[in-house]
Specification:
79% of the residues lie in helices and 0% in strands. With 153 residues, it is mainly alpha-helical.
Length: 153
């Protein structure tokens, strides 16, 4: 009898824990509100890193005598991401409420996912891969600020 009561209490505690962890209130507790200044910093940092990353990609791929279509695709996607982050910056500067640029940020993150896919298949030097990792981290922070899905792992 006592064992049954203990098992029932353990199951009840486990179910309650699962319910608490999956409720929207808990999700709000985990997230935080970002100030305009913090979002501005995140956008600037991502924009700076994307410029550096695009330059590194162009120099890394430009040294090959024969560029494959995969390399062309990576270079094109990197430039598109760089341009989209410029659009995010411009839209951010033109609006009072930074949450209005959520769709532009979402577009940039979708472009970044395509770059991430190409980067996983590319054979580039470690400095370029490190730059992509830092840019992806910045973009993931930006995704958190706008409550959007992150990129990669």
């Amino acid at each position: 009898m006592r064992n049954r009561i203990l098992k029932s209490l353990a199951i009840l505690a486990a179910c309650t824990s699962v319910l608490i962890l999956t409720t929207p209130g808990y999700a709000q507790f985990r997230s935080r509100d970002y100030s305009r200044w913090e979002v501005d910093r995140l956008i600037r940092q991502a924009q700076f890193r994307s410029d550096r990353f695009a330059a590194m990609i162009d120099s890394s791929l430009g040294t090959d005598l024969e560029e494959s279509s995969s390399d062309d695709r990576l270079s094109m996607r990197t430039r598109n991401l760089e341009r989209q982050l410029d659009i995010v910056r411009q839209a951010f500067n033109e609006t009072r409420d930074f949450r209005d640029v959520r769709s532009e940020v979402s577009t940039a993150l979708n472009m970044a996912r395509r770059v991430d896919y190409q980067m996983r298949r590319a054979n580039l030097d470690s400095a370029t891969e490190r730059q992509w990792t830092m840019l992806r981290s910045d973009l993931n922070q930006l995704a958190r600020a706008f409550d959007l899905p992150s990129i990669g792992y």
